[in-house]
Amino acid sequence: MNEEFDKAVALTKTFSKRPSNDELLKLYALYKQVTEGDNNEPRPGGFDFKAIAKYDAWVELKGKSKEDAQQEYINFVSSLSQNYA
């Protein structure tokens, strides 16, 4: 499945249009869950709203296995590619 995941990551870099912010957050969170596992970092503070949104999206996936996150990422990229590739 790693090869499929790598292909999905590469496919996102070829999109001709930018996905929505919510879609980008989901891609980010799934990618981080696959590559780093559960988010155990402290939550960003202050007014860095982008960092907070990314943190929150990743934390929502806590406990999801690497394999499940990989498959979800692959499926999500496949659905996005119909609109953005």
Task: Give a concise summary.
The protein is mostly helical. It is built from four helices and no strands.
Verbal overview:
The protein has 85 residues and is an all-alpha fold. The chain has one domain: Acyl-CoA Binding Protein, CATH 1.20.80. It is 67% helix and 0% strand. It has helices at residues 2-12, 21-36, 49-59, 66-84. The model has no long low-confidence stretch (mean pLDDT 96).
Distance between the termini: 22 Å
Can you summarize the main beta sheet?
none
CATH architecture, by name, is: Up-down Bundle
Report low-confidence residues grouped into runs of 5 or more: none
List the helices and strands and how they pair.
Elements: H1 2-12, H2 21-36, H3 49-59, H4 66-84
Helix pairs in contact: 1-4, 2-3, 2-4
Please tag this protein with its features.
flat, Acyl-CoA Binding Protein, 85 residues, 4 helices, mainly alpha
